[in-house]
Structures are given as structure tokens and as C-alpha cells.
Specification:
The chain has about 250 residues and is an alpha/beta fold. Helices cover about 55% and strands about 10% of the residues. It has a five-stranded parallel β-sheet with strand order 2-1-3-4-5, with helices on both faces.
Length: about 250
């Protein structure tokens, strides 16, 4: 699993391999690295290079900006698999069928979560981000039932709180949709629908481009259904309140 190993901690790799952390460190040292951190950097470089298709007629720029754009293009291509398209349609169907939708996430997942929540609400869906500490998030999730949909967005490392909240949503009977970068994420065991989205960047920081693209794909599916469109009413409200600084 080169994608996982490129970003995982020594403990996460140890748990996945069924060994202890010291075995992971010793293995790295036997391969003549100082430790897991150095081996991980080497693995990441090899993995990222394997994703980039080079053209002999036109040498590619080595600038960080160009490398990042190429990596995002590769991530988008991976995210556009037939399995993901089917899962995205299923997530949109679950949102359409739900009484209300709660979105939970941590860290940088807040970006895609905000895009999904804001635009879906414009389309007429009762969707909210359960924000704040885990205690506040638990209040929102504990009030869900089989009529609701819980969307879980996990970017990179998984927190115990997010895992527990997802399990709580499952216990409450809600439909669970997970957007994650790992095929083997523990969250998938609780999910009705899973969309796998690569988050590889060119350094230690994950890229959210493909994750945001998946969110927009879900939104496009929702908009095309026209099930709960309220865009016209909202635009009229904006105009009535004179909120927009429209250019003449």
C-alpha cells in the first residue's frame, strides 16, 4: 500500500502490518535509513514519481507549482474511477432521501465540508456541519435516526473522535457516507457508501483538490436531480436585502 505508507506514522504502519513500532524502525534501519521518517520520505518520492507520466518530447518543469498541478491532475484521474462515480451517485441519492444531513470532519477536511454544506443548503437541503469540540459534535450525531444521512470527511490521519462519532451515527441508524483517502480506513466498516479520494501532494502536506472535486461531483448530481431546488428563492432574498455589490 504505497499511498498509505507514504504518509502514515510508524505506529499506523505497525498496526497495519501486525507488528510493533520498533520492528518498523528496525526495518528502516536495516535498509540503511536513520529511521521510519527517512524511509517514509523515500517511499513518498518513489510513489509520487510513479504517478506522473512524462513526455519525451516536452521535458516537464521541476518547479514546485508545476509539480503540484501535475500531481493534482493525477489525483483527479484516480478519483474518476467507475467505482467512485457509482459511489458518488449513491451518496447523492442518500442525501436526496434524507430528512436532514450532518457533515462531520476534522482538520483540513473542514474546507470540503464547508463547500458541501453551503452549496447543498442553497439547493434546498437541510444540511449542517457539526462543528466545535467532539462533545458538541456528539450532540448533533446522537439526535440522528434512520431518516438522516451522516457524511464523514476524513483527510489523512484519523482521530479517535471522528471514528467514535461515525460509529455513533451507525448505531443511531443513519445512512453513513464516507469520503476518505484510504481503501482500508476503519471508517469504511460503518459506511453504506464510500468514496476513495487520493490526497497526495508533493511534500508532507496533503492536497485537497480531488476531495473538493468529489464534493462538487456530489453537488452536480444533486443539482441535476432538481429534487429540492431553492436557488431562485435565495437569489431573490439576496436581491431584496441588497446584499450584492453588483457592477453596473
Amino acid at each position: 500500500m504505497p499511498q498509505f505508507a507514504s504518509y502514515a506514522s510508524a505506529r499506523e504502519v505497525a498496526e497495519r502490518a501486525g507488528v510493533n513500532v520498533s520492528t518498523v524502525v528496525r526495518t528502516a534501519q536495516q535498509l540503511e535509513f536513520e529511521g521510519w521518517s527517512d524511509l517514509k520520505k523515500a517511499l513518498r518520492a518513489e510513489y509520487l514519481n510513479s504517478l506522473v507520466t512524462t513526455s519525451p518530447e516536452r521535458p516537464m518543469s521541476t518547479d514546485a507549482a508545476a509539480q503540484m498541478l501535475r500531481q493534482d491532475a493525477a489525483n483527479l484521474a484516480t478519483a474518476s474511477s467507475a467505482a467512485n462515480i457509482a459511489a458518488i451517485k449513491s451518496v447523492a441519492d442518500a442525501i436526496n432521501a434524507a430528512r436532514r444531513i450532518i457533515v462531520i470532519t476534522t482538520g483540513s477536511g473542514a474546507g470540503p465540508a464547508q463547500v458541501l454544506s453551503y452549496l447543498a443548503s442553497i439547493y434546498g437541503y437541510d444540511i449542517h456541519i457539526a462543528a466545535g469540540p467532539a462533545t458538541s459534535q456528539a450532540v448533533s450525531v446522537s439526535q440522528m435516526d434512520e431518516r438522516d444521512c451522516l457524511i464523514v470527511i476524513n483527510v489523512w490521519r484519523l482521530t479517535r473522535a471522528l471514528r467514535g462519532l461515525t460509529r455513533l451515527g451507525r448505531e443511531r441508524g443513519a445512512t453513513i457516507a464516507v469520503l476518505t483517502d484510504l481503501h482500508s480506513s476503519p471508517l469504511n466498516a460503518y459506511a453504506d457508501h464510500v468514496v476513495i479520494t487520493p490526497i497526495e501532494g508533493i511534500n508532507a502536506t496533503p492536497s485537497l483538490t480531488a476531495m473538493v472535486a468529489v464534493v462538487h461531483a456530489i453537488l452536480a448530481q444533486l443539482e441535476s436531480s432538481g429534487a429540492r431546488s431553492s436557488v431562485g428563492r435565495i437569489e431573490q432574498a439576496w436581491e431584496t436585502l441588497d446584499l450584492m455589490d453588483d457592477q453596473p
